[in-house]
Amino acid sequence: MFQRIRGAIDRTIAEEQARQQKINEAAGGSTAGVSRSGSTSSSRGGGAKRPARAKKPSADITNADVAPPNPDPAVFEAAFVIDDSDEPSRAGTPKPQPPEKDGDAVKNGDDKQATAPDGTDVKAHGDDKPKGDGEESAAHGAAAQELSPEIKQRLRKLEKLEATYPELLRSYRVAHKRATAIEPFEKALRENTPLTSIGDPDALTEYLNQLNLRGDMVMQELKRVSADKDDLKKKHDEAQDKLAKVQEELDALKAAGKPEGGATDHVDKANADGATDDKDDKAPEKAKSPVASVIGMFSPRQKAQAIEDKADGEDFFSYDEEIPQLQADVAAKAEEIDRLKTEAEDLKKELAAVKENSAGLATSLENATRELSESRDSTAPQDALQSQLEERNKEISALTAKLEKAEAQLKKLEDEAAEDKKAGETKIEELQGSLATSDKKTADLDAELSKANAAKTVSKKLIDNLNTQIEGLKKEKAEAQGKIDDLSKKLDTKPPSTNPAKSTDSTPATAPPAAAGSKKKNKKKKGKGGAGAGTATPAVEDAASEATEPAADAADAPGSAALEAEIANLKNEVKDKDAQIEKLSQRRKTEEDLREEIENLQENLLNIGQDHVEAKDKIKELEAERTELKKQISELEEKMGSSTSDAVAGAKLQGDMDALQKEYDDLKEKSTALQSDLGAAQQLAQTRFKDLSELREVLQKAQPELKTLRQESAELKTVKEDLAAKVKELKDMEKKEKDLKREVSRAQQQSTDHETEIKSLQEKLKTEGSGKQQADEAKRTAERNLRRAEADKVELSAKAEKAERELQKAQDEVNKLRPKVKDLEEQLHKMKREKTAAQEEAEFKAQQYTNAQGLLGSMRDQTTELSTQLKEAKSQAESLEEELGEVQRLLQERTREGETMRRLLADVDERADNKVREMRGRMEAAIEERERIEDESSTMARRKSRETEELKHRIRELEREVKTLGNERDELEERQREWKRRREELEAVESKAEAETEEMRTTVSQLRSALDASESQLRDNEKQRADLRKMLDDSRQRYERIARDLKAAQSKMLSSSTVGGSSRTSTDSNRSGGMNGSSGGGGGDTMYLKTILLQFLEQKDGRLRAQLVPVLGKLLKFDKTDEQKWLNAVQHIEVR
Predict the structure, then answer these.
(1) Is 18 part of a structural domain of the chain?
(2) Domain limits at 187?
(3) What are the residues whose beta carbons fall under 8 Å from the beta carbon of 105, sequence distance 6 or more?
(4) Among candidate residues 167, 192, 217, the one where a domain is terminated
(5) Residue 10: is its pLDDT beyond 50?
(6) Position 569 confidence tier, pLDDT thresholds 50, 70, 90
């Protein structure tokens, strides 16, 4: 189609040229010469032209039938470009001889691209000559014809164009469709992908590969999280089953204790609430399907479903949605635990009521014994009492069975807590292992950074050395060129010598062969056109042969030979130095590229290092919390080992501990809230960084323009060889760029892998922390239930033993009532004696009670002092939290600024890559235009070779063209000046931009120093916080020691009471029991003194020692002077 279009257009142009020539010849009056030339041309070329004329439409038809219309718009546009380039051939008329050759070529059917335009010219000119003859005959018979020749010519043109018009229209429509389809496709690419045009398939493949990798990573994370979720569900179901069993047992106990059924209704309601909670918890799990959402994300209809997904609430799986679900589960479990606590408290209340009833029974038994002594004959009340005693015994046995069941449940709960603790420890060990691997990776990265720094320093030194060498070589080259110029001037300006005798006397023995060589050279140049000598270059030989004449050869031979040798040596040196300069410049380019790569790697390593530092800090905080939790667990285990019998004091202490734990949980919640605020601040920093990057784009538009101007100036100055070399260099640069992009993508993948690992570790730590909290709460509840159950068990066992003894006594007395009335009267006297003894014992116990109340008062004073210390510690912790918040705000601002700088640098790199791509496209377009121009110039040269006979007629036109070319040359020179001026301006802009970048670098360094300072402040704050936590732990340990001492004193009091009960047989044993009780009380006081003195000596803080002095004063009965002496001594003590 391309050849057919050109042929049609050339034919029309040739016809117009022939018509204009005919008009000019008719006006000049040379009709005879024209007719003669027309006849000769027709006679010579008739045989060749007529077949060509007959063949043209057939050839067009065959081409149209065989080859379908080419839909490529590039071909269509090229056809129109060649139409414009063929316009200068209007003035040419071909010779009669070349058409014969071309006609033969057309006959043979040679339709190649190189000969196609010639063939079309031949056909056009073959058509022109017969047309000229027809027009002469029409001029003779103009009256007979109705149509003029111009109309006929136009009709012929229309007939020729009718065959090609539908193909042209079809190809134009195809090209238009493609052009219109490309724009929306590129628009969609820009909006939905980082790509900008279709001409970069490698970038599209990389983007798709990254999407696939991201999808694989998301699927792996989804599988892992779903497995963890299933495990948690299983554990949750097991815990719910256990809780259901416990609730059923509690319901059974309540039904046995309270037949009214009020408690059962309450439990049923609680179960119903738990069931509804379970349903509510399961409903969002059914609604949310992360697998389906991920599959939908990677499906081809992702864009169409994006709006519906947003409307439905974005069902895509994320950690932010999963964490609240887990928290809800934890809250539900906590509510169930509280419910169980309340039920346990109800049971304790019921036990207390039973105890009171048993005490009432004991009193009723005593009354019964009195009534028995008074009414010996009445036996009916004794039977009633026995029936009541039997009922009470049954109730006591039922309660003991319930207590045993509760103890078994507590044991199960303790085992479960131990298992949870073991699982948490294994998870922590796994996290520590992953931390160790991450530390190893960071160490490897640091080693690579050090290597890169060393390579950078070495490359800098090499670049400096190469620059100095290049400058030295350039100077030497300039000096050698100056010498060459001087020597050539000397050769040109040397005067010919006229004294052959002197020259023969002064010349050495080497002169004759040199003269002979010069004569031989002259002969060779005359005969063959100049073959050069062996050592000197051809240019120097020509200059020497032109300067020297045959008469002066003998005189000037030695000087010219020496000069030629020097020139040759200097030129060789210049070539060697040019080669060295090129090698060094290539090395410098490669080293500069390596330097840029090293800088990029350093930046990436710095980013990764900062991320690792942040992760390490978070892990350290979590480890500190873990150590605190371990300490608390150990403390709780110690408390479980040391259970006490006094329920009232234990409940008060437990309430204080619960308050402390609630405060600790509040502090934890505040820390989590601060972390969430940190995340929100980071998001704000990202948005601000985007705004700053958009502002930065305006500043950096001058640099790509500078690059383009430099490349365009280089293209104007260089020749074809330079273009080829640049094409090779561009290919090498493309390869290097691809390698660099691959390395950057690898580094990015590594960074993303590190980030995912850090996120997974953080999530694991969070889940472990929540599990530990649940385990701690379960342990606390179990400990409380254990203590209460043990206390109840002790009391019930004691009362049961007492009741059994009293029952046995009562039965013995009933059996012995009738035969042993006298014995009963004697027993009455004994009972009176025992009463007196019991009164004495009661007085003794009242004294012990007063002592115990004194001890309790001192303990209360100590608890008040500890509460004041706790308040002070809380105030200090709050102030530290405020300071922490300020420091975190400063850190957030610094991190925002650092991230803005990083993103600015990334945007600069992306823009540079885009400009490089655009310049490559321009280079390729320039190369294509150059090839097209070369083809056109070859066709023009062929036509000009044919049109040599018509040059006389076209001299005027050529002169006009020369003038226009001179004008164009002037315009080009002016453009070149403008380019230089713009280049200087852009260089100034570039220098300003470089200065700005240096300022930005200084600001970045300042920001980094400020970040380091803020991090050091954070560490100091963390140290202070750790000290405060140590203080809290010390106070808790003191509190526990005091509680233990109290429990020990109470246990001793109980033991003394049992000793007093066993000594009712005689007054002597009463006295000995009283002495033992007093000694026991004294032992309790001494133990209490020992513990307080130990605390006093172990205490390192002077304030706390001073607070313990009044307690010692109460125990040891100090005066005010003694207390003052102790206080002065405490102030002078120096703790080492």
Answers:
(1) yes
(2) 2-192
(3) 115, 118, 119, 122
(4) 192
(5) yes
(6) confident
